[in-house]
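How a chain folds remains the central question behind the approach discussed here. For one protein, we set the task of working out the structure tokens from the amino acid sequence alone. The sequence in question and its structure tokens are set out directly beneath this paragraph.

_____
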Amino acid sequence: MTIKLIAIGKTDSKQLQALIDDYCKRLGFYIKFNLEIIPDIKNAKNLSEAQQKQKEGELILAKINATDALILLDENGKQMDSVGFSNYLQKHMNSGIKQVVFVIGGPYGFSEDVYQQAKGKISLSKMTFSHQMVRLFIIEQLYRGFTILRNEPYHHR
């Protein structure tokens, strides 16, 4: 199985990007992982929220295969602890799915088309985080999930 994370816009902080790179590298020891960044929409300030979501949605869906399990990082998604998330990953691996795609949407969320294609929604917290920090958090949780599945000491129960 492959895991892909799609996010909108670049990470401005060099320190945050260094942490993201570190956890991407760590995660690569467990599973094939790809981080794909969709550039910010040009002239977004001239678009309505709905137009921006639609344009971002088209770019997201262009990166999804019909056989992918599309999972949205959404404030209204299912919340779980790290052990629960590791079990969630294991279920996807056991299902025979070739690729799971997690998506961090733009500032206004997802278009209706993206919601319709999604196979699930998860929430990292009831709190709101910057989209750039969410990248680090989900990649770290993916890494933590695999260390839990392998019973390694990174995650202390």
